[in-house]
Amino acid sequence: MAENNIIKFKRGVIMKKRFLAVISMILVLSIIAGCGGTTAPAQEADGEWKFDRKITIVVPWGVGGGADGTVRPLQPLLEKELGVPVEIVNVEGAGGANGVEYVYKQPADGYTYLLGTQSHIMLDIQKILTVDFQKDITPVAKLVHSINIIASSTKAQEGKYSNFKEFIEYAKAHPQELICAMQTATGADAVAMKQTLAGGLGVDITEIEDYIKIVNYNSGAELAAAQVGGHFNVSITGADEIRGLIESGDIIPLISMSEERMSSFPDMECTGEHGIDSYVGTWRAIFCRTGTPEAAIEKMAAALEKCWNMPEYQEFLKQASYLDRQGFANAEDTKKLMDEEYVTFTDYLKKAGIIQ
To answer: Which of 54, 103, 164, 319 is 20–30 Å from 132 (CA)?
Structure first.
């Protein structure tokens, strides 16, 4: 009798352990399923990616510049389209390098993106980045391809020049008196500005600073404030960044770096009229870490294209003069553009004596 009770007790313990094991397994599977993609990609049953938490877009420059201004109007449209919060984080410093390195340290899980430009190509070629931009960072879609302009401080130009030709003549007659400002001396803006100044002066790009001083500023807001105050003469910028200051008369646009005149500033001359090939222009694209799930990239790219075509963003693009050049491009075309510019900028940096 006692033996039977013992056998029944042991069987009960075994069954209880098995029951608890099954319950534990169910709980584990439930937790994994509810982790929002931390253990497995957040995909719906049909295989389409579904974002289920906050997305971060890193801008490697300060608030108020052209890069930041490109994604701000896009933010609420993306939030509505994707159904999750979209946060813009400004990670400044090192000419845009800090933002790239910040993104590279984040998980490649589809929730962190980068607003990049060809300035990062310049940094990569010069070995300033600690990551390989071509291999470690993947394009998602290009948003805009702007036309840069050389703009003058109304206060600083008074009595010296009133157009680009007079600016060049004054620089020749008064070496190193005029000051040119820019945000990233190692970036694409520097290429376009130096090509334009060299073409106007009729000198090699290595000789520009014999005539015009070049100074650097950390942010677009800081640069614009200094320009209004007359602390320097000219800067390279996007028309969208200083439209209000142009309209107020504080800043005068001198010349656009484009083949033809800009639709929004038809009275402003362009470098094409002077036979100066400085058409680089700043493009801005969304990137992510290489290794990010392809389904997440495709979902984000589709959302970006849809939001790009929305009336609200199209109006922004029109007002900012971004429709004079092809703007939106898919990942494949953006990668092709990048590869072409690696060749262009390598050649430029060699001619400038910056790299061997």
So the answer is: 54
Task: List all residues 6 or more positions away from 341 whose beta carbon is below 8 Å from its beta carbon.
Answer: 118, 121
Residue 58 has what pLDDT? 98
d(CA 259, CA 276): 9
H or E stretch covering 220 = helix 220-228
> Pick from 295, 288, 292, 330: which is nearest to 141 by CA?
330
Ramachandran region, residue 148 (left: φ > 0; alpha: ψ -120 to 50; beta: rest): beta
Query: Chain centroid to CA 164: how far?
Result: 29
Q: What is the pLDDT of residues 231-256, one digit of tens each?
A: 999 998 877 778 888 989 999 999 99
Same fold for the domain at 55-145+282-351 and the one at 148-274? yes
| Superfamily of 55-145+282-351 according to CATH | Bordetella uptake gene, domain 1 (3.40.190.150)
